[in-house]
Design brief:
The chain is α+β, with helices and mostly antiparallel strands. The protein has a single domain, classed as Metal Binding Protein, Guanine Nucleotide Exchange Factor, Chain A. It contains five helices and eleven strands. It has an eight-stranded mixed beta sheet with strand order 10-3-4-9-8-7-6-11. A three-stranded antiparallel beta sheet has the order 1-2-5, with no helix packed on it. Helix 1 packs across helix 5. The longest helix is centred in the C-terminal third of the chain and has 25 residues. The N and C termini lie far apart (40 Å). Bound molecules: zinc ion (ZN) (2 copies). One zinc ion binds next to helix 1.
Length: 204
């Protein structure tokens, strides 16, 4: 069953809707990379974004189904590292929205469930998009069986992105300019010192 879920930042200025959520229309993963954990500290929202082991639930989907309907003037993006993904969030209340490639074109967004009001790993999230298909960038060595699972998960995601591309054409919604495929706002860069501080807070 596909469900539309309301997107709402914590203060209510930014609203939208994630359309057609289901297990088959999304790729739900847990990521424990340095960037995701630093980002949660950057926003000051570790309680809302990280599970007990420091993992972020991320739901990857077709970005054309992730619509912002109100408050777009409060949407900004940052990069933890110069070559990392664009991490979009609201400037009004530091609510993470989703992570994208640096340019539009390939349809992909990995949203953070707290923008739907869902914290960490929960039954509510599993009901919407199914259980996590893989835990990536784990701090400890990933067992062989899980590594094989992750390879299949990534192949599955690649097939989905190709399907979304064929279905919808080059993607620019909701955060890119349709002509240039550049982000609609200039990404915020952090200094090396700030990055080191965030990583230290995250325990790296
Ligand atoms: Zn807000
Ligand atoms: Zn990550």
């Amino acid at each position: 069953m596909k469900t539309d879920a309301p997107i709402k930042c914590s203060c209510g200025k930014v609203e939208g809707v994630a359309r057609g959520l289901s297990r088959s229309s999304t790729n739900h993963v847990v990521c424990s990379c340095k960037g995701c954990q630093s980002y949660a500290h950057y926003l000051g929202r570790t309680d809302d974004m990280l599970d007990a082991e420091g993992g972020s639930n991320i739901v990857q989907m077709d970005p054309s189904k992730f619509e912002i309907t109100r408050g777009m003037e409060n949407v900004v993006c940052m990069r933890v590292t110069n070559d990392g993904p664009l991490r979009w969030y609201t400037s009004c209340c530091n609510t993470p929205l989703g992570n994208t490639f640096p340019r539009g074109g390939l349809p992909f967004i990995g949203f953070l469930p707290i923008c739907l009001g869902i914290k960490g790993t929960s039954e509510e999230l599993v009901a919407l998009v199914g259980k996590s298909r893989g835990h990536v960038n784990r701090p400890e060595k990933t067992p062989l069986f899980d590594r094989i699972g992750n390879v299949f998960m990534i192949i599955g995601l690649f097939c989905k992105i190709m399907f979304w591309r064929v279905r919808g054409g080059p993607a620019f919604k909701p955060f890119f300019d349709a002509e240039t495929m550049r982000p609609m706002v200039k990404p915020i860069k952090i200094s090396d010192e700030e990055r080191a501080e965030l990583e230290a807070k995250a325990g790296f």
